[in-house]
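sry for the spam today, last one i promise. struct tokens for design, 163 residues
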């Protein structure tokens, strides 16, 4: 059983993820707002880590897609500060990475994602392979695993956000 809010008992489903968002065509403002709606329906409280992750193709498309026709406000907006590497979608941080493919969009409470490293950092110095140029080759390996502590705090797109 979950916490009691007022007189209502909130029940959590720890093993399921929030509903997927289907764009079914070009991304629109109502589609983007569905990500947050689905998390709110799961009683996910924003602790300041709500954000979007997607690939560079979606990033490019959303920077050009207006929220409303004829109004100069776009789905993805940059702050204009040179030191800020994040964009913003609906006031939430947004980042693009080539690690995501096929226009996938993920929205979630990122404090619920765990990153665990195994064995530690492995550093190997190779003085032989570049010996003819008097250089050292340093190889660094880190074994890591990512898991979601509370999958209900994440919603993904079921199709491309860059249609």
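last one done:
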């Amino acid at each position: 059983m979950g916490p009691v809010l007022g007189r209502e008992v909130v029940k959590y489903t720890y093993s399921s993820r929030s509903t997927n968002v289907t764009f079914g065509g070009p991304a629109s403002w109502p589609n983007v707002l569905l990500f947050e709606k689905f998390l709110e329906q799961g009683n996910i409280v924003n602790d300041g880590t709500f954000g979007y992750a997607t690939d560079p193709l979606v990033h490019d498309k959303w920077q050009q897609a207006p929220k409303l026709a004829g109004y100069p406000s776009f789905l993805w907006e940059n702050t204009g500060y040179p030191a800020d590497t994040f964009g913003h979608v609906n006031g939430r941080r947004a980042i693009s990475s080539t690690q995501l493919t096929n226009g996938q969009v993920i929205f979630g409470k990122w404090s619920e994602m765990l990153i665990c490293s195994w064995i530690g950092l492995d550093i190997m110095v190779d003085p032989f392979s570049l010996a003819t140029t008097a250089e050292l080759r340093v190889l660094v390996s880190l074994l890591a695993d990512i898991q979601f502590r509370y999958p209900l705090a994440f919603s993904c797109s079921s199709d491309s956000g860059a249609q």
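The domain at 4-112+150-156 is CATH 3.30.2320 (hypothetical protein PF0899 fold). ok im logging off now
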